[in-house]
Amino acid sequence: MDNNEFQNQSSQSQNNSAKHLEYEQCAKDLETMRSLLSHDFKAPLRGILSTTNWLLEDYQHKLDEDGQSYLRIIQQKANQFTTMLSTMQEYIQIKERKEAMMYIDTHTLLESIIMTYGSLAGIKIHITQELPTIWGGTTLIERLFKSMVMNAIESIDQQQGEINIECKDNRDCWQFQIADNGCGIASRNFDSIFELFYTLDGYKRENGGGIGLSFAKKIVEIMGGHIWLESELGLGTTFFFTLPKHTLEKSEK
What we know:
Elements: H1 3-40, H2 42-58, H3 65-93, E1 101-105, H4 106-121, E2 124-127, E3 133-137, H5 138-155, E4 162-170, E5 173-180, H6 212-222, E6 227-231, E7 237-244, H7 246-252
Parallel strand pairs: 2-4
Antiparallel strand pairs: 1-3, 4-5, 5-7, 6-7
């Protein structure tokens, strides 16, 4: 081995060691964040909720309507932030989630989601065709479709809200699309809409929302698919995402 080869191998070894140390540090940072989200950040919120409950129960007769209203607002915001922390914790762990793979009837799954959330919102949601059975993890697939449906519901700013869901067979993948007649999204926001806790004007975010599309994008990418949208302000939005068939095909061989 000549000197140049030795130097190259030595340099490569140092780079690998540096990357390994960087990976270990990232893993430690991630574990620290999980601990903070699970315990440290939630403890003060539990204290706030306990205190406001105590004030409303024991001092209600001493508070006027405005005072009681302010305490309920505090409770609402504390609950909202607690939900945001739990969702963030779930988002951090989603790539490491290990669950059994199985056949999932997406038509039945979406009917269940629509029955739960669509009826509450008073919005007409239509599945325009029979949807496929796919192969995947139940929790991830359910989270994906729930996030997409809830995003469509939250975008609708009119009484005659309507959402249409369909799927196309694109040879190597299933292409789902969810179209709404909501407020629409300007093209300049097509990328930022997938960022964590990003909220657009006109969206009715509930329970600390702004993370549903981030979840959806991450799940689709984990499964090897793509997600994108078409939209115009005031004319609604159609989200598209693909789920490759290769996993299903391998399971059938």
